[in-house]
Design goal:
By secondary structure, the chain is mostly helical. The chain is built from 9 helices and 3 strands; from the N terminus they run ααβααββααααα. The chain has a 3-stranded antiparallel beta sheet.
């Protein structure tokens, strides 16, 4: 078994669900999904679908989710198409409040996906905002993390056509 094959075998159900949803979005600006149908398809509970949507399809990563619960409940997932300037402005707004590690990592991933930073820069940023590097109480960590990300966005904005 090759290393690549080994990695695909070890993927979590969340990774598989995320990949399925991303491939469904490939040629579309939005998709409508049934939480229950997806759960049946992947042989998991609907809360697993919620987990994937809430952690991997966030506004920080460029997605908007509209949800309707009940018998005919659906999820409408829309990919935002921002130009670089709008993305940076929106990112500054996101950084205006204390950020959890998850929120900051999602923002970094989105900057990487939009090719504003390279892989090495993304990894360095993730190290910089880690709890280990900040080494403070959580409520202070989130504020420091937000301030760091805000300064990164401001620096990226200088090179942008904002």
């Amino acid at each position: 078994m090759t290393e690549k094959e080994g990695k695909s075998v070890n993927r979590s159900i969340s990774d598989v669900i995320e990949q399925f949803i991303m491939s469904s979005l490939d040629d579309n600006d939005f998709i409508e999904l049934s939480r229950n149908d997806l759960a049946k398809f992947f042989s998991c509970v609907p809360s697993q679908i919620n987990y994937v949507l809430n952690t991997r399809f966030t506004i920080n990563r460029g997605f908007v989710i509209e949800s309707q619960r009940g018998g005919s409940g659906y999820i409408k997932l829309t990919r935002m198409h921002d130009n670089e300037s709008n993305f940076l402005k929106n990112s500054l707004e996101i950084c205006s409040h204390p950020m959890t590690m998850l929120e900051a990592n999602q923002l970094i991933q989105n900057m990487f996906d939009k090719k504003l930073i390279n892989e090495r820069e993304a990894n360095l940023l993730k190290c910089t905002i880690s709890a280990k590097a900040l080494n403070n109480p959580i409520n202070i960590d989130n504020t420091l993390r937000s301030n760091i990300m805000r300064q990164v966005i401001i620096e990226l904005s200088k090179d942008s056509k904002m």
